[in-house]
Amino acid sequence: MSLPAFALAVLLLLLTPGPTNTLLAVAGATRGLKASLPLVGAELAGYLATISTLVFVAAPLLAGQPTAALVIKLLSTLWVLLLAIRLWSNPPTATDLGAVNALGVFATTVLNPKGLIIGLVLIPPAATGAPGGLAAPLPYLGLFSALVMLVALSWITFGAAVLRRVAVANPLLVSRIAASFLVLFAAGLAGRAIGWI
To answer: Cα dist. 117→54, 73, 131, 162, 193 in Å?
Structure first.
């Protein structure tokens, strides 16, 4: 895949609402833009932890292992459901800056199925016998990192600019909508994992 085609595919994938983007928007709404900026690094670290492991180690090992892929998807589903329960039962407020924190964003991103798609499908694996060898994925990882930061800032800005007004007036509304969205996302993920969707 060429770098421009990769950039377009990754950009469309990253812009799609999901668990990490939901957390970033909620953080922007409750914490504001400046206080949410460290979450960009947490998201990038989460994606790079997953994708680097997939590209450099796991891709050859996971080939032909559908059970391992199913377990990973089901763990991702469970994490997203736990996030939804947390947002529903304990909505973050502007004074509760720890509700959406860097560790939560990191863990959510590590378990985000988008990382699996990017690491196993879009980025060429590092292999000594493959074209480009071990360095083949490096330009893709660099471009991916820049796109992650751009999209993360966009979601935080959306939360700070649009959702913040709603969150100040009714903090329960934003967290309940976000929690509901996460439950739907988890249901879709589980349905795809077990073949119902």
So the answer is: 10, 11, 21, 30, 13
